[in-house]
Structures are given as C-alpha cells and as structure tokens.
C-alpha cells in the first residue's frame, strides 16, 4: 500500500495536527538527551538503552511504561503468526509479566533499525520537485522494512478496537512519526533525535496527556463485565470461537429514536479484517440483554462517496424489498475521531461525469414478495452523501496521484438476521433456489428503489433459517441515477464474481447486467467446488483460470475477464463436454451462458473491416474498429436487457426440473483455506504488499485497491468478506 502513504510532513506540523497541546508543563531535557544511543552496535542493544532513557526522562509521566517486546509474540493472533515488535508502550496497569506483547492494549509501537540506510522513506531535498519525487523507497531491503511496518500496523489495528494508531520509527540517528488509519498513513520528515530530541519529547508528553479517544481507541466498544461475559458466552455458544479465551466485548450502537443507545454483547466474530485500509469489516452474532434477542452486528469503514449501508437497508425495507436482512438500528458513528484524516492531506480527485444511462424497460413483476416486517417509510433517513471536509494544507506532499486514498467513515449497524453461508446448501435444487431468492431481491431493489447492488458474490448470499436465500452486504450499492458521477478509479465488486466486461474495463460504471452475470458465476463457483461433475481432477485449475485470472498493464493496473469471456463464448477452460451431475442445474447454466453470450455480442460487436483507401482490392486492407454500442442502451430483443427472462429461467428450472435428492454440498478442497492464510502471512513477512509494483506513490494502483480479490481457496465465509492483502470499496 505504498500508494496510500503520504509524506513527509514536517514533525512540527505532525504534532500540531494530530496531538493537541496540554497545559501541563513538560520537564526540561537537553536537546542531546538521547546521544548515548549512538554507541549501540546491534539493534538489540538499542532497546534497553532507549527504554532506560525514556523512563528516566519522566516524559511519560506515571501512567505509562515501555516494555521490550522483541522476544515475545502475541499468542492471541492465531493462524501461526509470530509478530515480535520492538519496544511497545502500554498503560502501567497492563500486566506484561507473562505476555509482553499484547496488540489490543498497545499504546505506541516502536520500530528500530540500526542503520540509517534501513529507512524505507526518502525525503526530498530543497531543490527537488515534490510532485514527481518518490517518497517510498523501492529497493528490495527498504521495501521489506516498509512491509514490516505495514504488517505490524495491520495486525495492531485489526486485533484491537481502534480508529487510528501511532508508530515511532528509528533508523540509526533519525526518527520519524507515523499515523495510521483506515485510509492510509501520514509519515513525518525524519529528524536527528540524537542531536535534537525536542520533537520526540513533545510527542511523548502530549500523547501521555491525551484522553483515550484522542489516542485512537474506539470508546464505543468496551470489555464486558463478568456478568455480561457469562451471559454472552451462554447465549452465543453456537458461534463460539475456537479460542474460548477470546475476550467478550460490548458494542454501543445508536438507537433509531435517537434518545438512547443499544448495547450488544459479542464473542466470536464471523469476519474480521485482514487489511490495514479499506472497509475492514468485522461481523458478529450479538446478544442484547435488554430485549433478550439475538442479532447480527456489522462494523466497518465505509467509503465517503458511497451511501451508508444502514440508510440503504432502511430504504429497501421501507419499500418492502424481499429477501434482504431486516434492519434494526445503527448508522455512522457520529463522534470525533471516527472518520479518517489521511485523505484530508491529499488532493481530492474530481468525479468524472458520465453520459446519463438509459434505463432499461420496466421489469415485469414475478411472484408477490414474501411478507417481511414493515418499516414506516417516514422513518428512514434519506440516503445521501456528505460533503467532503476542507482539504488541509500539505505543501510538503510528494507525489501527484492519490486516487487510492479514500475518505472513510466508521459505520456500525444491526440486523435481525444471522445467516448461514450459501456453501452449506443441502441439495443442488436448494442452491439454485437460494440464488433465485437473492435474484428476486436484486430485481425488486432495482425496480422499486433504483439500486444496483454491485457486489454479487458467494459470500453475499446467505441462507435464512426459514429457508429463504438472502441478498446481503449492500454497502457498495448505488442508485443507477447516481452512477453518472463516479471516481475515475471506481471498479467495485469481489474479483472472482465480477463480470468479464467490467474486469476488462469495457465500460466505466456498473450496470444491472454486470450484477446478473455475477449471479451466474456464484452458481458456477458452487457447482464446481461443492457438487459432482465430470472434471474433478481439473477442478482447482479450472476455478483458478476462471475466477482468479488477472494480469497487469504497463501502468500497474490490474485487469482480467478475458478467460470468463472466452468461457462464455466457446466453453473455453470448462471445455465443451463439461457437465454437472445435477442435470437441471447444468441446463440452467447453459441457458445462462447463452444469455450472457448474446449480451456480450450485443455490447461488443465484431469489428468491421473498412477500406480506408477506397480500393476494390480487399486483400491488403487494415481493420478499423467501428464504434462499440453503449452497454447502457437497452433492447427488448436482448434477453439480458432486464430481469424478466432470467427470472423466467430460474422459475422454470426450479418448477420443472427433475432434481437429485442426495447431492448435498461437499467441499472439493477444504484444506486450501489454511494454505491461503499461510501465503498471505508469507507475503507480508517478505514485504511483498509494499513492493509488488515498485511501491511508487505516483503509480495508480486504484483498480487493485478498489476491488477485493479473496482467492478461491478462501471460499465463502459466513457471507462476509475477509480482505487478504488490500481492502476495496
């Protein structure tokens, strides 16, 4: 995420922006107070000397301590992680005798390198042009060090309830301050703390006089009391985590009437973030003692330019859209520190206005929607976008392309629904039925409210206990009328299930046809992975070729889709003799492929050859492409122009097919999820997340940061995404 790191901010500006002054008088210390640090011959020698000097300086007051954590890993991380940070600052009441490293309680992370050359950042000189200067170093060793910083920050923010955090980085005689949040990081200029440590003195003194929220902690989450812990573990035992010592937390969520707040007890999570930036979703089954009810809580950082998911669900429920989660309460956390700041220091990218798309012909309603609890239409707040806050002055900023830094707002809400993953289907017919239910939700949301979901994926279709399929995760949804304005780098969805033309950058905004194509990939994914077919030995390679295929252009932009397009047009990759043992499902797929093929040929017609010389001799003429038809133009003769035909095929397959009676889901390769976790861990340890594309702050990696790519080996996981190496909108 080198393209999400902004710097170098002068240390004086860093202090003024992020650490409010205190009225308490700071102890006086010599500017060269830390000069004895220069005698260290090994990195390990730096820790005890630094800790001793800080403690003797009295700059932390009496409420904080620094502990050498370089030989201790946090056993609560799980998954085989062995993260041993350098000295870490804690409150004095934190017991570190048996467990020195505790990310959930860490106040400041220190990272030391003996050599100045280990600094992964390059400050420009006074004569250098900052707009073209590469602030993030690209050497292998420096990129590895930056990867280590990112690795630690990622685990820190993801294993604690924080809005932001600070790291102090030391390379030889130089020190930098770093502030991390869900939009990226601000890095200070380096300064020689051995000859002049005043910036560091000021940092420590100010930090240790801040309130908990000002230090980055999320004060809307707290540890449960003993009584709450006992109650929570009893009520949430069905979703108990593997580690029964996992702490029980209490989340505060605004009530709908605005006069009070709900408190929900959470134990094991169904999803937790694995990236530093992006939505960073956490999801929990929760219990409310007041109502004695179970609910589902979703917590994350929404993109500023997207509507709040809570508002979208209110709107959908008010319009009686079927087969969606029933909204209960919540929304943006409207408290200070619950919005990112990194984005305020980079230029905002103006939206590109697109031609107003022509709305397809009105869909024909199918079956009447099932009855769901009605929300008073007068109650939901309007779905709207907040204005951007004023930009902060940043003449120090290096680089010129910052499209990957996105303003994010902390968003938390609760629904009356805890679903099961689609992969737990018990019959192939039920698989298609659940997807058909989700398709109906998509159809009604579009027809009644104008929403396009924009993230149809395996994890976003869940199974309700009453037997319905539920279309979940509406955080990327937008009204079609809003899509005329989009950020240049906007490409949304979960990579494996995105339409081939979106992946190929054929058109700039998401359409209902893109979503409908994604429904087909959800069924194909589950058919290949969980059902019997005639290509069992090739399953893994087929799935990787279809769902994970990607390539990068000369600008480092990620594209794909050509394999999917070839599969739709000619059964490439699957091969013509491919078939699922479930004949009705196989026939459904073939009908869908025919519809997709017709649509692709409609919006990407064959190039016509034009004789630019006006010569009758056709043997040596070049081909000149004719204009491509807009994907927004609809023709009633094209089956995929609206939901109608696809809904009919769903209904016919479910009503008339002779379905197998004993083909429950069986995972073809359940072992791969553990391998995926190991590969992510290995990549982080090697610094690959920082250096894969050279780490340039000037290179646009927006397509990578805007779309999620959870490889097929991770599979669906309780209907909520777990980002791997990066977040996406």
TrEMBL record:
GO molecular function annotation: ATP binding; protein kinase activity
Protein name: Protein kinase domain-containing protein
Family annotation (PROSITE patterns): PROTEIN_KINASE_DOM (PS50011), PROTEIN_KINASE_TYR (PS00109)
Domain Protein kinase: 207-589
Region annotated Disordered, chain positions: 614-638, 677-729
InterPro entries assigned: Kinase-like_dom_sf, Pkinase_fungal, Prot_kinase_dom, Tyr_kinase_AS
Pfam families: Pkinase_fungal
Record's compositionally biased regions (Polar residues): 626-638, 714-729
Organism expressing this protein natively: Sphagnurus paluster
């Amino acid at each position: 995420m080198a393209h999400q790191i902004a710097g170098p901010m002068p240390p004086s500006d860093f202090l003024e922006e992020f650490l409010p002054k205190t009225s308490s008088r700071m102890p006086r210390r010599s500017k060269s107070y830390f000069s004895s640090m220069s005698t260290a011959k090994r990195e390990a020698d730096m820790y005890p000397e630094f800790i001793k000097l800080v403690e003797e300086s009295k700059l932390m007051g009496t409420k904080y301590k620094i502990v050498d954590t370089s030989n201790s890993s946090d056993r609560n991380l799980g998954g085989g992680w062995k993260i041993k940070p350098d000295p870490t600052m804690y409150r004095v009441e934190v017991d570190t005798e048996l467990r020195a490293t505790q990310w959930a309680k860490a106040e400041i992370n220190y990272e030391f390198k003996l050599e100045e050359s280990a600094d992964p950042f390059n400050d420009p000189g006074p004569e250098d042009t900052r707009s073209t200067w590469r602030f993030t170093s690209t050497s292998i060793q420096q990129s590895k060090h930056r990867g280590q910083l990112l690795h630690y920050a990622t685990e820190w923010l993801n294993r604690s309830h924080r809005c932001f955090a600070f790291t102090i980085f030391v390379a030889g005689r130089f020190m930098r301050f770093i502030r991390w949040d869900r939009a990226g990081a601000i890095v200070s200029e380096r300064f020689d703390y051995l000859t002049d440590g005043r910036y560091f003195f000021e940092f420590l003194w100010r930090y240790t006089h801040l309130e908990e929220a000002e230090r980055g902690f999320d004060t809307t989450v707290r540890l449960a009391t003993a009584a709450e812990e006992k109650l929570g573990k009893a009520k949430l035992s069905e979703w108990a985590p593997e580690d029964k010592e996992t702490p029980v937390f209490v989340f505060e969520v605004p009530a709908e009437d605005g006069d009070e707040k709900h408190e929900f007890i959470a134990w094991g999570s169904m999803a937790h973030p694995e990236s530093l930036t992006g939505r960073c979703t956490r999801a929990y089954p929760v219990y409310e003692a007041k109502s004695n009810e179970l609910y589902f809580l979703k917590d994350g950082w929404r993109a500023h330019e997207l509507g709040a998911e809570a508002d979208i669900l209110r709107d959908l429920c008010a319009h009686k859209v079927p087969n969606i989660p029933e909204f209960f309460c919540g929304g943006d956390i409207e408290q200070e520190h619950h919005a990112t700041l990194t984005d305020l220091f980079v230029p905002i990218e103006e939206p590109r206005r697109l031609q107003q798309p022509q709305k397809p012909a009105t869909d024909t309603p199918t079956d009447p929607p099932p009855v769901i609890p009605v929300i008073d239409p007068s109650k939901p707040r309007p779905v709207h976008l907040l204005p951007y806050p004023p930009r902060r002055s940043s003449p120090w900023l290096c680089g010129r392309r910052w499209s990957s830094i996105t303003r994010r707002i902390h968003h938390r809400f609760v629904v009356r629904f805890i679903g099961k993953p689609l992969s737990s289907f018990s019959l192939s017919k039920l698989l298609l039925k659940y997807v058909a239910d989700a398709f109906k939700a998509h159809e009604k949301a579009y027809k009644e409210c104008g929403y396009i979901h924009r993230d149809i994926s395996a994890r976003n279709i869940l199974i309700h206990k009453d037997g319905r399929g539920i279309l979940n995760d509406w955080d990327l949804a937008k009204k079609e009328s809003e899509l005329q304005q989009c950020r240049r780098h906007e490409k949304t969805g979960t990579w494996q299930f995105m339409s081939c033309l979106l992946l190929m950058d054929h058109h700039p905004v998401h359409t209902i046809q893109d979503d409908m194509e994604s429904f087909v990939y959800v069924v194909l994914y589950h058919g290949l992975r969980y059902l019997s077919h005639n290509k069992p030995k090739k399953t893994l390679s087929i799935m990787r070729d279809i769902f994970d295929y990607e390539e990068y252009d000369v600008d480092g932009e990620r594209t794909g889709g050509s394999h999917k397009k070839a599969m739709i047009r000619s059964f490439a990759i699957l091969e013509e003799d491919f078939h699922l043992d479930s004949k009705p499902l196989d026939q459904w797929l073939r009908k869908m492929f025919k519809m997709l093929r017709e649509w692709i040929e409609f919006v990407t017609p064959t190039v016509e050859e034009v004789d630019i010389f006006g010569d009758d001799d056709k043997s040596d003429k070049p081909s000149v492409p004719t204009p491509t038809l807009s994907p927004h133009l609809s023709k009633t003769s094209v089956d995929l122009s609206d939901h109608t035909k696809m809904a009919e095929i769903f209904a016919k397959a479910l009503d008339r097919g002779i379905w197998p009676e004993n083909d429950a889901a069986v995972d073809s390769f359940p072992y791969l999820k553990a391998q995926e976790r190991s590969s992510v861990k290995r990549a982080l340890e090697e610094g690959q997340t920082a250096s894969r594309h050279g780490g340039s702050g000037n290179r646009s990696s927006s397509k990578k940061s805007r779309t999620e790519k959870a490889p097929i080996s991770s599979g669906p996981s309780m209907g909520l995404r777990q980002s791997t190496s990066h977040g996406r909108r």
